[in-house]
Amino acid sequence: MRSPESATASTMAIAADDEGTGWRLVLLRCLFCLVLGWTNSIMMFRFRVFATMMVGNSILLGVSMACEEHLVRRSEQVLLCPAEFEPSYYFFLILLFVFGAFFHGYMEERHGWTPKHFAPIVVLVIVVEETRLCLSNTSRQDDDHYYVYLLAPVFGITGSLSLKSKLAGVPWAASGNMLSAAYHFARYVQ
Length: 190
Prior knowledge:
There is one protein chain. The chain is mostly helical and 190 residues long. 73% of the residues lie in helices and 0% in strands. It has helices spanning 4-17, 19-47, 54-68, 75-79, 87-111, 115-135, 148-164, 174-185. It is globular, with a radius of gyration of 19 Å. The two termini are 37 Å apart.
């Protein structure tokens, strides 16, 4: 697996080899960061989880455990607990995200699948979820948050695809991508 440092180094090498390709790659990474930031915002409002940031979901898992196990002693702290669901909810979400990445690796290695094979799956699952939401009677139902289990593997697949593609990194690692972009933009300042 490629480390974040080597991914940044590969981005710099691409930019140094061909400024046109490097510039487009940096722009694509920045745009992908914005799209995934928007997606994570929607998922936070709709499901109270992060779509692609498993570190955030791991933090919510830990906070949920602390709140449910009464490790937080004062009642006002319990009321302010940011984790809305039981720990198992976050655990299964993370597990399904990882399963999506595993599925991508398995299908690519064993069956030669390319991103073109995964695109219909990704689109279908997102369309099904959006259609379900449009057809539901209310904007948010009590069991609505379990539909995130349908989306989590898809986000695992897309994350794994971006890691193994020319992007050579995960676009939601926004800090590293923004730093890389800023570094490369400095070349064009006269």
